[in-house]
Amino acid sequence: MGAFSGRGIPRHVGIIMDGNGRWAKRHGMARTQGHLEGLKAAKRIVKAASDMGIGYLTLYVFSTENWKRTAAEVGFIMGLVRQYLRGEMDFCRENHIRVRHAGDAAGLPEDIAAEIAETVEDTKEFGGMQVILALNYGGRDELVRAVRRLVAKGAADGGLLNAAEEDIAACLDNPDIPDPDLIIRSAGEYRMSNFLLWEGAYAELYVSAKLWPEWTDADLAAAVGEYRNRDRRYGGIAANGE
Ligand code: FPP
Question: Deepest in the core among 59, 70, 163, 226, taking most CB within 10 A?
Answer without folding.
Answer: 59
